[in-house]
Amino acid sequence: MPELPEVEITKRSISKHILGKKIKSLKILNPKLRYNLNYESLNLFKNQTIKKINRRSKYILIFFDNENVLLVHLGMTGRFYFLNGDRKIDTSFYSNNKIIKSHDHLKITFEGFSLIYNDIRKFGFIRRLTISNIKFSKHINKLGYEPLTKEFNFEYLKQKIYNKSSPIKNLLMNQSIVAGLGNIYANEALFMGKIRPNKKGNKLKDYEIKTLVKSINKIIKNAIDAGGSTIKNYHNSEGRSGSYQSNFKVYDRENRKCLRLGCNGKIRRQVSSGRSIFFCFKCQR
Question: Which range of residues forms the domain containing residue 26?
Answer without folding.
Answer: 4-136
